[in-house]
Design brief:
14 strands; binds iron/sulfur cluster; alpha/beta; two-stranded parallel sheet
């Protein structure tokens, strides 16, 4: 493994600094971005409008930082789960979900996760390391369906706001005119509610925000999400209420339904009270059992009752269609400890 930094994953201002430090014309920075993010070349030698000196300097200081997936599993519903090696010799997964209206990629931002949510396979594998912005974006750049993609969700392995600098950098590259020039409305970032980082994200990005809620009761959420001890969900909601969510930017809450645990009538009442006055939607998610968890999924009828009740009480609510369950690609099932 080389000790060089990756070129892919640098922002325009990173490259302007590089050019300045090495006495190169500053317009080279924009040209490099163009090659990296628009023309998507795989080597510095393909950057033909740069001088030989510039190309040599780039090769001296950087690796390209692009790597193909090392494995793919294909579900009977068309979902594909890609496995990538990381620069620190780890492994992460990205999940591609095609449908008739959209092509969505669910990407990872850490190998493993520190947050330890009781129901989650990634949480059970512990934390290995953060991904760089380049490694986050390589999951989009290096899969065969890359150019088809219409939506990206940061809902794979890891807690995005526990690696916020690199996540924000990846979002800057995705949404800037010198980068991929995506609309922030096509990107959704999910968190379990790290309040200071969440507020920084709200202020510094325009992408959609999804909060993992899973129980409206502080005492119950504490049992399966340790973060509740530091940032109670009631405080997360209070912080969110300081912002205006009635525009195009979407705020949603993810609610995984566990049979006999968080799917009772009392939860509906409390959810309605908690979310009152907040412009948002709720996505109900079917739980997917895995060998390291004792939880079971709520029945489909219960999920429908939940959805209908919330809709009748003024909260837009949908049931998220389950994808890739047969290849362990569904929500909460990503784990790479055995795959390195
Ligand atoms: Fe981490 Fe998200 Fe899993 Fe919780 S649910 S352990 S935050 S990956």
């Amino acid at each position: 493994m080389s000790n060089h930094q990756s070129l892919f994953g640098n922002t325009l201002s990173d490259l302007q600094t590089f050019c300045k430090t090495h006495g190169l014309p500053s317009f080279n920075a924009r040209q490099i971005c163009e090659w990296l993010y628009k023309k998507q070349v795989s080597s510095v030698d393909e950057m033909t409008n740069l001088s030989l000196k510039t190309r040599e300097l780039l090769k001296e200081h950087y690796d390209m930082g692009i790597s193909e997936p090392v494995n793919v599993q294909i579900s009977s519903d068309g979902t594909k789960k890609y496995l990538f090696k990381t620069q620190k010799n780890g492994a992460i997964e990205a999940v591609y979900m095609p449908s008739s209206e959209r092509h969505t990629l669910c990407i990872s931002c850490q190998m493993g996760c520190k947050m330890g949510c009781e129901f989650c396979a990634t949480g059970k594998q512990g934390f290995q390391h953060n991904l760089t912005a380049g490694e986050i974006l390589n999951q989009l750049r290096s899969i065969p369906e890359s150019t088809l993609m219409t939506n990206i969700v940061y809902m794979g392995m890891g807690e995005p706001f526990d690696n916020l600098d690199e996540v924000l950098k990846s979002l800057e590259i995705l949404t800037s005119d010198w980068g991929y020039a995506w609309s922030p409305r096509r990107i959704n970032v999910s968190t379990i509610g790290l309040i200071p980082e969440m507020e920084r994200f709200i202020n510094e990005s325009e992408c959609h925000l999804a909060i993992s809620l899973h129980s409206p009761f502080d005492y119950e959420r504490q049992k399966f999400m340790p973060i509740q001890n530091k940032y109670p969900i009631s405080s997360v909601i209070k912080a969110l209420k300081k912002y205006d969510w009635s525009g195009q930017r979407r705020l949603s809450f993810e609610y995984i339904m566990f049979d006999g645990i968080n799917d009772k009538h009392a939860h509906l009442d409390e959810l309605t009270k908690l979310l009152k006055g907040l412009f948002c939607r709720v996505n109900l998610i079917k739980y997917h059992s895995h060998p390291k968890s004792d939880f079971q999924p709520s029945s489909e009828e219960r999920m429908i009752e939940f959805r209908d009740y919330l809709n009748e009480h003024g909260i837009i609510c949908t049931i998220r269609q389950s994808r890739g369950e047969d290849i362990m690609a569904a929500c909460g099932l990503l784990s790479t400890m055995e795959k390195k």
